[in-house]
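We include the pair:
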Amino acid sequence: MTSQRRFFILNETIPASETASMMCRVVSDKLFPQHKYAPFPALSSDEPCHNTNMIVPGITPLPQISFERREFIQRVKEMELSTALASFFGVDLKRGKEDTVELCAAVVKRYSLEQPELYFKKLMENELYARDVRKMLESSSSSKAYLVTGFLTATGAVWKITTGHSRITGFKAAAPTPAFIGLPVPGIAPSMDPSWTTIDTIAREMCVLDEEIFAVAYSEIRFSYTFDKSAPRFAKATPTVGPPKRTKARHLAMGTTSDTVIDVSSDEDDEPVNRERATKLMVVQEISELASSKDSFLLE
């Protein structure tokens, strides 16, 4: 069901009072949609309210409702030192993280907007909404943002959240061969592979009686460019809605047709440069931590 996992579970829930104006907001962060979003609040007393539901009345569709809903979501991530680096430094390194979320809710409502690009086009006819969306895209380091196209709310929810971290580190140590130390008797170099395993687990449970938005679906928004003689540099930039944003293995997410979504997979990053940088930093840190241990072990 990975292809249908499109509702991102938020790091912070949103009050149900935002439900009416949530649809077709443009946000900068998929997991923290309240951090920064368009349309912006009125900047002055003279500026009219331009929430999406004020521009297009009835933009929020009727929800699909399920009762006594139970969901179990699991995410497993592993990061391992590459074979080449492990061979060069004599270091064995593997880190893992497992997150599980279990939701039991009396009522779950699913709001999904059909053909969101048509609603977005209508909203962009509003001068204030268009101004805010353009500012969002222009201020984005990745030149993209996310259009809210659906969300899930839960009432009478019990959340059970477990986070576990595992870390396996070690190094390869070999004693000198007899030939190397000048002895005439050939021999086999004995080797030792000491390693350490650390596992940490944190579990918590929360009960929330009030209705809250806890997961959101998005479509990506970027500028598309067309030739225009009157535009700066002869290129006219138009905010354009892309296909639905699918979740990746690293995201806690829910689908639309399955009550149980279990995803066990390696991490996939949108930005390989950042992942490579993080891996290098992890390698340097682990090697420096193991250097003193390795030296003292060989001396013994």
Summary: Residues 16 and 212 are 5 Å apart (CA to CA). The first helix runs from residue 19 to 22. The longest strand covers residues 144-171. The radius of gyration is 26 Å.
